[in-house]
Design goal:
Elements (H helix, E strand, L loop, with lengths): L2 H13 L6 H5 L3 H6 L8 H10 L9
Amino acid sequence: MTPREHEVALTMVRHAHTSPDEEDRAAFTREQEEAWDPPALVTQQQRVTWESNLAEVVVTNP
């Protein structure tokens, strides 16, 4: 990864959420609502694991 790609990936690992917020969910169509899995929180341990594996990521296509 380029330094910028690494920076973005690291920010996502550290701060991103897996579920839409209430405002986003309010705009879902019926089909989207039915297809969306229940919210699942990302644990701190998952974030630590992902961050520790980030050095192994290989970008194969720019």
